[in-house]
Amino acid sequence: MTINLWVTIPVFNEIKALPKTLNRLYELNKTSTFNVVLCDNNSTDGSKELIETFISANSLNWLVVVEKEKGTGAAADTAIRSAIKVGATHIARTDADCLPAYNWIQVITEQFENTSLRMIAGRITARMDDTNITVKDANKFNRVVPIAAWFGKIRPLNKGKQFKGSYMMTAGCNLAIESDLYLECGGFPRTKIEDVHEDHVLINRVRVITSDYKYLKSMHVEVSARRIDKWGIINTLKWYANHSYKPEVIDIR
Predict the structure, then answer these.
(1) How far apart are CA 117 and CA 102, in angstroms?
(2) What is the torsion angle, in degrees rounded to the nearest 10, for the CA atoms of residue 92, residue 240, residue 251 and residue 5?
(3) CB contact burial 118-138 (16+ within 10 A = b; e otherwise)
């Protein structure tokens, strides 16, 4: 199978985090074949201009699109559909404050080329370079994430006869999906992160259609620890689990 892989990234006021993320993707692009589309979600801090300057300075064919409707789901969906329109057969997604591992593209490409999988998701660990988070708290987070994944499997809302496979916790910053499957299932809901976790909706939409999805420990992304640093581990987990923690500020920058 010939893979035309595009990496998609929603962006909102990430001018501080973007340079490292863009540089990591640029480094990956030197050794792996893929393209990138970044969707600016109406940023006001110069994020879009920084991205355009980076693309121009490095003579890249990456695309920049704009989604004015506020919401991670809306921006991610616009980025993915923009990639599909220009020929993407498979889509990977990460976020503007994340660092994919150096073998990230290789792992994704090999899975889609050599298996019948239509969607994959991977491991996330806390970054240590963008906050004052302690090693102790980062390690706690890294240990708790697999427990949260297990909890997701037993939650009633993730069970039902309509699903063709078991629940798989899917971080929006570390997933990849076949373009046809994305369109067939309806993709990410065009929502705000404070209303709905769009990655949770996506995996359950996929599960209604197929069981050809898999979690891969080797597919690794380091995620920003900003929420852990600001809210603490317990409140962060409550936020991601069911929004039982309701902070005044969602978009921590």
Answers:
(1) 22
(2) 0
(3) bbbbbbbbbbeebbebeeebb
Backbone phi and psi for residue 183, each to the nearest 5 degrees, phi listed first: -70, -40
Cα angle 62, 68, 69 (rounded to 5 degrees) comes to 120
Q: pLDDT tens across 179-235, in order?
A: 999 999 999 999 887 888 899 999 999 999 999 999 999 999 999 988 888 888 788
Taking the model in full, what pTM does it have?
0.93
Q: Which amino acid is at 134?
A: T
How far is Cα 6 from Cα 61, in angstroms, rounded to an integer? Answer: 11
**Which residues, in sequence order, are CB contacts of 98 under 8 Å at separation 6+?**
21, 127, 173, 174, 221, 222, 223, 224
Residues in the chain: 253
Q: How far apart are CA 64 and CA 18, in angstroms?
A: 14
Q: Which residue has the higher pLDDT, 15 or 134?
A: 15
Give the CA count within 13 Å in the CB-facing half-sphere of 204. 17
How far apart are alpha carbons 136 and 141 in whole angstroms? 9
DSSP result, the chain? ----EEEEEEESS-TTTHHHHHHHHHHHHHHS--EEEEEE-S-SSSHHHHHHHHHHHTT---EEEE--S--HHHHHHHHHHHHHHTT-SEEEE--TT-EE-TTHHHHHHHHHHHS--SEEEEEEEE-SSSS---HHHHHHHHHHHHHHHHHHHH-GGG--TT-SS------TTSEEEEHHHHHHHT-S-S--TTT--HHHHHHHHHHHH-S-EEEEEEEEEEE--HHHHHH-HHHHHHHHHHS-S--S-SS--
